[in-house]
Design goal:
Four copies of one chain form a homotetramer.
Chain A: E1 2-6, H1 12-21, E2 26-31, H2 36-44, E3 49-51, H3 54-59, E4 65-68, H4 75-84, E5 88-92, H5 99-112, E6 116-119, H6 126-136, E7 143-153, H7 162-177, E8 184-190, E9 199-205, E10 211-217, E11 219-231, E12 235-239, E13 247-259, E14 262-277, H8 285-298, H9 307-325, E15 331-332
Parallel strand pairs in A: 1-2, 1-4, 2-3, 4-5, 5-6, 7-10
Antiparallel strand pairs in A: 7-11, 8-9, 8-15, 9-10, 11-12, 12-13, 13-14
Chain lengths: 333, 333, 333, 333
Amino acid sequence: MRIGVVGYGYWGPNIVRNFHSLDNTEVALVADRNPKCEARLKKNFSSIGFTANESDVLTSPNIDVVAVVTPVWTHYDLAKKALENGKHVFVEKPFTCSVAQAEELIELADRKNLKIMVDHTFLFTGAVRKIKELVDNKELGDLYYYDSLRVNLGLFQHDVNVIWDLAPHDLSIMDYLIADKPEAVVATGEKHLNGVEDVAFITVYFPKRVIAHVNVNWLSPVKVRTTLIGGEKKMLVWNDLEADEKIRIYDKGVSMSTNPANLHQLLVSYRSGDMWAPQVEQVEALRAETSYFVKCIEENKTPFNDGMAGLRVVRILEAANRSIRTRGEAVSL
Amino acid sequence: MRIGVVGYGYWGPNIVRNFHSLDNTEVALVADRNPKCEARLKKNFSSIGFTANESDVLTSPNIDVVAVVTPVWTHYDLAKKALENGKHVFVEKPFTCSVAQAEELIELADRKNLKIMVDHTFLFTGAVRKIKELVDNKELGDLYYYDSLRVNLGLFQHDVNVIWDLAPHDLSIMDYLIADKPEAVVATGEKHLNGVEDVAFITVYFPKRVIAHVNVNWLSPVKVRTTLIGGEKKMLVWNDLEADEKIRIYDKGVSMSTNPANLHQLLVSYRSGDMWAPQVEQVEALRAETSYFVKCIEENKTPFNDGMAGLRVVRILEAANRSIRTRGEAVSL
Amino acid sequence: MRIGVVGYGYWGPNIVRNFHSLDNTEVALVADRNPKCEARLKKNFSSIGFTANESDVLTSPNIDVVAVVTPVWTHYDLAKKALENGKHVFVEKPFTCSVAQAEELIELADRKNLKIMVDHTFLFTGAVRKIKELVDNKELGDLYYYDSLRVNLGLFQHDVNVIWDLAPHDLSIMDYLIADKPEAVVATGEKHLNGVEDVAFITVYFPKRVIAHVNVNWLSPVKVRTTLIGGEKKMLVWNDLEADEKIRIYDKGVSMSTNPANLHQLLVSYRSGDMWAPQVEQVEALRAETSYFVKCIEENKTPFNDGMAGLRVVRILEAANRSIRTRGEAVSL
Amino acid sequence: MRIGVVGYGYWGPNIVRNFHSLDNTEVALVADRNPKCEARLKKNFSSIGFTANESDVLTSPNIDVVAVVTPVWTHYDLAKKALENGKHVFVEKPFTCSVAQAEELIELADRKNLKIMVDHTFLFTGAVRKIKELVDNKELGDLYYYDSLRVNLGLFQHDVNVIWDLAPHDLSIMDYLIADKPEAVVATGEKHLNGVEDVAFITVYFPKRVIAHVNVNWLSPVKVRTTLIGGEKKMLVWNDLEADEKIRIYDKGVSMSTNPANLHQLLVSYRSGDMWAPQVEQVEALRAETSYFVKCIEENKTPFNDGMAGLRVVRILEAANRSIRTRGEAVSL
């Protein structure tokens, strides 16, 4: 299978390295309008071709799969042209700028029997896979909440706000963990510098009293990547910046009972037990993801992080942007 | 000065100990309807009187000041009766259940020339005093945001939700640090157990793009008390659970300039420098607060944490409750 | 049972409070040469008698047990007089200034059928009890090492060096956990200020390749209380400054095998698994210890932290002092 | 300048990458007896030659500098042959297996006017450079102690014990920071698995009451890289595993005075102030080091981490091995 890559900025080299190192796969051509990229590419991968013209990648008859690793506002055009030329597409997150764009790409791929994968890399980390396993095995019991703090200093984007930059990680993870469809989004935030929100807080309401919250911030002096997940039986803390013990599971909980002396009164009782940090598989997530995409194409299977998954994330992002403009009015999904 | 205390539950003993140990002050009488409290009181303070009838405290001619250390739904009645009987009142936070109650108590105290202090204890900690000093001295520059994470397992309240339980701390600190009046409140959250919200997220909009956010949660497996404060020049992290170095100030920032080559393009540049943890005064906050209240009464001065300060916090709490019922509709203040 | 306490400085009030609050026990008399202690005592325990003359405690016919809570150089004289007057004695750690003194007190107590308990408080903490349980149940497998870091700024002692001040904690814990008798002690260190060692490093050799190491330091800018315990099957980290999760057990290990291709070559293989933090009982250690002493006296049983345990710790301290004077010459035990 | 590299195992690729990326420098040939290394090399550096025979590197007339990146027991022979063939040598730490070997290589290089650099990489990190600056500027005042904890699980070596594996880092840093020559070494430790010490504790005595201690351990469940450095005026903690704030400087200290009331009594007083974490330069240490070596050769200057520096470290290692065999007998230097 021959891969073409459009975009060789910050993330592109990782995409190239991973697709190139898989068995039976090679990166044939990389496109970037920045001419400095050629030397960077050649230094590490002298055999891979380079072009300043992305059309060369999108239309080449020798290319089977196109990876779109460019700013979000270019995804739709690039992916569309690649699909029209019969290529499978691997697209950076967030999938597109709008629900309408995403729907159109999905429809086009379906029609041409091509695969779309949206690069929700976190879903392939050992940590998220372990959390998925714990949730699916009902180890946490029914979920109560998902609450993520994802803050750091910069990197400011010019074209998108901090929600579109940082929240897709959490939104794709929620989408992966929580079976029910979200009901509504509330977003608040503020713009302090270049006209886009740099601090934002998003609440997503799910059925059955499950609530999710994401705190994203480009103006934090410290980098934090911590998620609390509370369940009926157990609760966990995922600190992605820990080298080891990324996930800590607490055998703690709260339960309700009726006061025998007063049937109208509910009593809350606490349970506190051991903490447990399961070993998490140490793999490069992107390697697992690219390998999985190749396998899906070969076996004609739909990846779980397909265009539909990308669309579900874009739907929440779009709703969050609408909500934040009205200072938190709930937007139904 | 003779103090009477109503309520000898969790916090009452601290109030008694502090008022009792001040010079020229003594606690004369403690009231609690729970008869077990008498033995607990006598074990440590054999000379202080006890009564199961709070009216004894509220009406005693030998008492100058009444401290109300009971659940919030009782504050209004107890404080009102104390004021009517000519006593100064020291009231637990939150001040009252409603803006109307708070306004009535303030008006009553004014009319009778009595003092009200609301127990916003955190304002008297070394950490908050140091932050106040940094903000007032413009060391942080203009404020961008105040973002607090205040979560733990329990302690569930039956009569109030997690906002009324945990957020008053942050709301009183914001009120202390930010000169401008808040404009609007957005609150989201969910009830999982006993019919009151146990997870909640509050955004407060201030003028000049200052935004505050408070994350409160009774269902967290870990206890966190961390606040990020971002300013134009510097940013700080206050971790109240650290034994030393509660406050860390980062000489980090972001600034904007115009691209000389393209006057329509804003460039964001980052500045990263040293971190500095100033030594913070180690005092018992409640001792400083009770001592200050006695001094305010003696010198006929209005404490900064007076009924008006209590009212400002209750106004936001009331708005948050209204907003949370509508899933985040902004409530103007 | 009536208790007399000699010494009401830093630790004395805790001893008084605990013995006084037990059922069937009361503190009858406290002695301290510092006249300011009387007011401090009376404020909290108005019913307990006070004297500036310790002989009143040591000889009173109304006292059954004497707690010696004074500097180490006074322990021998006070405990001896108490035993001669027929009292059981509870002595602060370290037991005595020398092996000879300890042996004499043990012999005297045996002759008069009296109990001695040495206040090795740490043995009664939830953390050490849990570690003891893990070691005794062979969960760690054979022990490899015990390595403790116990450093902070001050509190300088005038009469003893940092080894006698801080190491007794670890030496008593080792004595409790490791069944075999230590073979030899090596100590190094330095004096920087007042003529006693303020930085010291102690190695204790045990049979079967078990080695212990204690790093004590009065000149550290940070307080650390961390112990690593390595075993054949598992390893643990005990951080006594953590509020929760004081003990973390790592399912990690190393094992040896012979290279099938080269029988002379040993291969080392690593095993890495989950981490587990068992819940640790949250009790006041001193309460458990004082209660246990009363029980030992009532039931005429020998406490495990008896004079012999105190002697074993003093023997290592004495050897460490001898070794440090010769820059680390091993002293056999 | 043309570089040849002998050894392409764990560290070799870093040496190749750094020497190869410098201006005016290229790696011409890499030797390794393991044939798998060729593919690994070619994948990243297709233009660099490979040989299974190290003599090709040591004798090639086209090579100016040989980097010896092999196990320590091979250093002497390889470096000797390189020097005899007129090459400058860059040698992994520890320099050699013995003082005699080191002295011979130094003498040979001197005679042939060639440079030796020993790869004490840590001396080129931003953290150690900052500490050096603080020490040289007398910000810490006179040094009291250097105390390092350097422990982790594995990586067991077959030919050297944990001291020779891990302690060279600290010994080279001490040598860099402390001007005075060490006086004596005491080492204790134990062998649990493959016949070499896997746990060891080293004390180094310096003049003027400066004492250093290094705790190295291959059997620790957690990785720790923390060094405390205490001075008369200030103290610091260097935690090399922190992403930011690797160095924390505490404005804390202890001072002595004479009791005015009793001139024989020394009073110790404590000073506690702010903590400060200076920004540390973020460079790849090995890049700075290789670049510095090239510059030293070009300008015919002696690097500070020359053969003499390597020898001083080997001298302590040799003494530590002698001391550990006698359970801590001090070995004079």
